[in-house]
């Protein structure tokens, strides 16, 4: 039997973009209004009541449009703002939208006037954008919306999909009640609660799957994506009294954070990233058991606190701040993020220092090995056997280890990874993107 065609039904506000567009439009249109804070609050309340299913969508929409007092000039400013507010994991996966332009639908209770210019940059077809439209006066004032549009009504997304009669496997991605209604009505196969920007508990409880990023959605559905392994699946421990700014940097990069006062045994086997406050210690036993650990950030000097030689032998990249520079609040987390995203070990205290450009349209493989003669020849023999074309290769060594980065520009089979892992003297291997 041929595989069913898949369709991806994606919400706009707080999903494709990080914000609620009508709330943002209010901030622009009411900028000089004496009671703006009070009106903002009312608009936000109407949004949330509808999103949580506590107020009908049509009632919420009517009230918000009335309060806006917006015009076409305000709309132009909004569009400029929204283009900068596309959700990080969506903008990272622009290629997916290009390849699947026929199967991606934007279905929103928002308005075409601001949605179309934003999503069109991502190769989403105008005819696949379903949203409301404003009614304006001759001089460009927004006074109402088209009440005949099913998307302006309660259960509008359900009505629209009933009308579209799409044949195939339908996936819904969104953050609100109207997105879940599609699943409840049986019109879509699976509903993914998108929580990168906002997590509504009432919606999370009803979802088939929680997707903290678009990478996660692509990963679980085995679809092509910009990064091989979603960052939200990488357990990141923050230990001790760490400045919230340091934690925010890691969180904003999409890592899944647990902030603890000590390194609890239950996390040792699964932790991928650790950030430690100055004065905290890691024992040799804990390090040896942390088999998935890729990088450690230390907000101070590691001397006497962490065995960096053991880290090197295990292929764990350490970033610390031996001089206790006040900059270390963001200096150390930024280095860790750079390593996780590009493989750069620049300013690491135990690894050969390597600064790396991110190369588009290629896969980046990291191979950490003992520094013994002939190992690069073995690595490249594996690539040759699999007919892999190498785009770029970077190697740095110290007395202990070799750190090799290879960018390849082809589709690969999983066997390639197994062969690279099997090379004698391999310490760690991973696919970055």
TrEMBL record:
PROSITE patterns: ACT. GO terms for cellular component: cytoplasm. Pathway: Amino-acid biosynthesis; L-serine biosynthesis; L-serine from 3-phospho-D-glycerate: step 3/3. Transmembrane segments: none annotated. This is D-3-phosphoglycerate dehydrogenase. GO terms for biological process: L-serine biosynthetic process. The keyword Magnesium applies. Its EC number is 1.1.1.399, 3.1.3.3.
